[in-house]
Specification:
Elements lengths: L1 H24 L1 H4 L1 H10 L1 H10 L2 E3 L2 E3 L1 H20 L2 H25 L15 H32 L7 H28 L4 H29 L13 H4 L2 H11 L11 H17 L4 E8 L2 H8 L1 H18 L5 E6 L2 E7 L3 H18 L10 E8 L6 H17 L5 E3 L2 E4 L4
Parallel strand pairs: 6-7
Antiparallel strand pairs: 1-2, 3-5, 3-6, 4-5, 7-8
Helix pairs in contact: 1-5, 1-9, 3-6, 4-5, 4-7, 5-7, 5-9, 6-7, 7-8, 8-9, 13-14, 14-15
Length: about 425
């Protein structure tokens, strides 16, 4: 029986994680509200199970409500923070807290009613509802503290384990759920008389759940999210979304900051978006590489063929960049004949390979009206090795672009120096 209960624990954890991560991963298709609603709707069930539903496991008594579902909720909140931000995380916590206060208030008002016993003999248990309400308020208060603590701890651990996102995930779960077990068990003991022996077995069960969720998180991060499974495609036939003000606003925002000539984002948009892209990549334990590309001898193109032909060359370069960069990357016109590409999730070696492919592709596909190839020089820098913010990384890439120009142009320069000498 104990082994059966343990297997059911694992099944429950896997099922909970699979459903919630699916809603989180496809939040741009389904709407973030589906994830937040699913996260909140389980709160009463979690609290109820933690209060009265206990099973025997190989290491003692434990409740799936506290060990599996509450643990899963806290780990989901951390995952939400990793993919969104702290402001988004606060929304479900505030909602749960207000809803639980309302539960307590409703239970207090219901006591004023004169109730009847149903023919089946069942009668309303208002005292139980009140106890559950206060326990839920206490649990949500702890959840709020847990959520703040798990985010702060995750960021602090980034100073020591920046690349080990899975390890940080596990440590955060162990520390904050240990704190939560201490606080929540006090409420269980006070309201429902749960025996003290259940504290240690409940803690062990939560640590067991943290282990399961850490393994599942590693699988998701390595083989699903980073593999690039599409998560943000708009659903076909989303005609109602097309009619909303928010849809029109987002469309207008997307058009804002576009370079009139090339159609790619301009420098103003770069100064808004690029720092966020780099910060988010570092927060998720990833690298972020910045490329600066400059068209070689572009003044000669304008002088020989005129500015209109020069504009056509710039448009061709921008088109080639847009075709070769990933959907998660973003390219900006930095000014004149210079372009900047921000590539999150790309380390320095991958950035150098990408830069070389771009250099070669432009040299072999873009030309002046007389057929001469147009070449580019590229500087490459990567966070966090070349800096912890976009400004520092951009400065390092710009220095390397200057080195590329001094080295004869039509080449790529990275941290270790020249990558490929000019061949075209």
């Amino acid at each position: 029986m104990e082994i059966t209960n343990l297997l059911l624990f694992v099944v429950e954890a896997v099922g909970y994680f699979a459903l919630m991560v699916s809603l989180l991963h496809f939040r741009y298709r389904l709407g973030l509200g589906m994830f937040l609603t699913a996260l909140g709707v389980m709160h009463f069930m979690e609290t109820y199970l933690a209060a009265v539903f206990y099973v025997e496991l190989p290491f003692g008594l434990a409740s799936p409500g506290s060990s599996i579902f509450f643990t899963g909720k806290l780990m989901m909140i951390l995952m939400l923070y990793l993919q969104e931000d702290a402001a988004t995380v606060r929304q479900p916590i505030y909602g749960l807290f207000i809803g639980n206060l309302l539960t307590v208030g409703v239970a207090w008002v219901l006591q004023l009613h004169s109730t009847v016993v149903l023919p089946s003999g069942d009668a309303a248990n208002v005292d139980f509802l009140k106890e559950m309400g206060w326990l839920m308020v206490w649990g949500t208060t702890l959840l709020y503290l847990d959520s703040i603590g798990i985010i702060l701890l995750y960021e602090r651990l980034g100073r020591y384990f920046r690349r080990r996102i899975v390890l940080r995930f596990m440590i955060c779960g162990v520390v904050l759920l240990s704190f939560d077990q201490l606080g929540f068990f006090g409420g269980l003991h006070y309201f429902f008389g749960v025996p003290a022996s259940a504290f240690w077995t409940g803690w062990i069960a939560k640590m067991f759940a943290v282990g399961i969720y850490t393994v599942l998180f590693a699988i998701y991060e390595i083989w699903i999210r980073r593999a690039g499974i599409a998560a943000n495609a708009r659903p076909i036939g989303d005609i109602f979304g097309d009619l909303t003000f928010r849809e029109r606003y987002n469309d207008l925002l997307n058009r804002t900051g576009r370079d009139v000539l090339t159609g790619i984002y301009d420098r103003t948009r770069m100064e808004m978006d690029a720092p966020v892209m780099v910060h988010d990549a570092l927060r998720q334990g990833q690298f972020a590489t910045v490329l600066i590309l400059d068209a070689d001898h572009f003044k000669d193109v304008n002088d020989r063929f005129g500015h209109l032909q020069g504009d056509q060359v710039l448009k061709a370069i921008a088109t080639r960049l847009g075709m070769m960069l990933r959907a998660t990357d973003r390219v900006f016109r930095f000014g004149g004949e210079e372009f900047v590409a921000v590539c999150p999730g790309t380390d320095h070696e991958e950035g150098l390979l990408l830069a070389e492919r771009l250099r070669w592709a432009i040299a072999t596909s873009v030309s002046t009206p007389d057929g001469a190839p147009v070449t580019v020089s590229v500087g490459v820098a990567t966070a966090d090795e070349d800096g912890l913010n976009f400004t520092n990384i951009l400065s390092a890439a710009d220095d390397r672009l200057y080195q590329a120009k001094k080295s004869g142009r039509n080449c790529v320069v990275g941290r270790s120096g020249l990558v490929k000498l000019a061949t075209a």
